Amino acid sequence: MGRWEPNATDRLVVAALELFETNGYENTTVIGIAERAGLTKSTFFRHFQDKREVLFGRSSLADVLAEGIAKAPADAEPLEAVACALELLAQDVFTPERRDFIARRQAVVATHPELREREALKGLGLIAAMTGALERRGLPALTARVTAELGALALELAYTRWGSASRDFTEVAREALDEVRSAAPAR
Amino acid sequence: MGRWEPNATDRLVVAALELFETNGYENTTVIGIAERAGLTKSTFFRHFQDKREVLFGRSSLADVLAEGIAKAPADAEPLEAVACALELLAQDVFTPERRDFIARRQAVVATHPELREREALKGLGLIAAMTGALERRGLPALTARVTAELGALALELAYTRWGSASRDFTEVAREALDEVRSAAPAR
């Protein structure tokens, strides 16, 4: 067992991001990341499964989204419950201080198919988490799923736009949710 | 270069499916699949990239869906264009003769995380293909994307139900599309 390393996770994430930016994802090794962070390879593997996971393992968006949906007022419409979840995300994860970091992370993820693939799979995990949380509010399974799909699409739009905007995530997210709602087919 | 092997693709797919069913995905090797099909390992790799791809590389659902959307009447509503695509799928791919095979394939895919992951990624490819085809009909990008997401959800439902039903895919798909439409939020 290694000794306790203060902020090891943060240091590893920042080191990885810098190396991916400078040398490319392909040319970066786990040892290189650990060294840059002043840590050992085994410390790396106590925090992350592999090189790819270092950009994905950190924040549990799925848990925050599920919590936000659960906490929405009992009489909130399905998409309104999703809006509450996106607000909680703005408070807990997508804070103004993190915007630059997130924009850099986005740019790196876009550079490599393996990273884009992992991002896509994480997106499916978010849909599953939101679907579950909406079902626990008593919604029929299919309504929950459709709402979660639309919510995930709004989240994706907001996430992309927020990285290059200078507005609060809540505002960008609300706008995206309205757009997605208007784009949905008439019943 | 190997000699021409009649129906090599089909033989490999059937052999793989049988071995996955009998011995499990994990315990099946490419050599084992090739041998069971009466072919060589190098013939296998001329047809498929890896063991996983053998259940996914065959039919190009994305192309059929895009074609069906392109061929829909010019005045068709967005989701109606998707319905046309699902009909073409019923004619070209999900034919009654293939139902048993598809049901077995579904059961095997469900057994292993690697296969479920590949299936999920293929699903995202279908959404992208439908989004593109809908945009080429002149729809705004977001309307195209939302419609494609709903269409993919209907396809997923229909695909799952059809495997265990004794009805035409067109009928199951149309029903699923109606359900998804009703589950979409009011604007």
From TrEMBL, chains A, B:
Domain of life: Bacteria
Occurrences of domain HTH tetR-type (ranges): 6-66
UniProt keywords, alphabetically: DNA-binding, Transcription, Transcription regulation
Residue range(s) of DNA binding per entry: 29-48
InterPro entries: Homeodomain-like_sf, HTH-type_TetR-like_transc_reg, HTH_TetR
Gene3D superfamilies: Tetracycline Repressor, domain 2
GO function terms (MF aspect): DNA-binding transcription factor activity; transcription cis-regulatory region binding
Species in which this protein is naturally found: Kribbella jejuensis
Protein name stated in the entry: TetR family transcriptional regulator
PANTHER family: HTH-TYPE TRANSCRIPTIONAL REGULATOR RUTR (PTHR30055), MYCOFACTOCIN BIOSYNTHESIS TRANSCRIPTIONAL REGULATOR MFTR-RELATED (PTHR30055:SF238)
